[in-house]
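Put briefly, the fold is written as integer tokens. The lines below illustrate.
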Amino acid sequence: MHTLQIGKYTLGSRLIVGSGKYDSFETTKAATLASGSELITVAVRRLNITNPNEPNLRDTFAGTNVKFLPNSAGCTTAEEAITLFRLTREATGIDLIKLEVIGDTQKTLYPDVLETIKACEVLARDGFTIMAYTSDDPIMARRLEDAGAHAIMPLAAPIGSGLGVQNKYNIVFVREAVKVPIIVDAGIGCASDAALAMELGADGVLTNTAIAQAQNPMLMAEAMKNAVIAGRLSYLAGRIAKRPYATASSPVDGMIQF
């Protein structure tokens, strides 16, 4: 019930976390462990994960069950992302990746989905297991699945905004459009946002800023862990239908009349 299958990888948690915006590697590790997540994203272009002569996040997580998810943050073309992941796999052996190609680098950080699809087609042929960051467009989600993506990652709101799920209907539409898992990514601000994403049918949630910049990252990480579990259980349980008027909790049939 709680495991998440992405391609050949099985994860024990449906919460994925990021590694950016923390004050230290030690805080990153503590918050990640508190979240229960088994997968943490790392921006390969901005973070050392290969040079043993510099502070290394991989050393920080040695001995844990946390896997690294390299992402292509900072890439603006398919070619840049393809080259980055090929070099990363050669250096680290990691083939589970988060593909993101950003179209607007100044204001919204929205993805360039056409470039993402181009990169996805090539990387899928190269044998990568691809989690593709995209807009909340069900048509583009289907095209990414057709291009070989093993998971679709529609944004909830702009990266780092904390606005929560801005278009509930589109998350549902994306869920209905594809067969692969969908991971709601970007814009999560608090635990209730994560729970809502899961109740809408998402298979998982990725969040970074909401934990890293919380006043108490460890406490927020634990809250996110519980929210994802609760949201998943709520989705599986099936909510009641919404009604415009009250309905009595106790039946009126057979009630004693005075």
User: Anything to note?
Assistant: The first helix runs from residue 25 to 35.
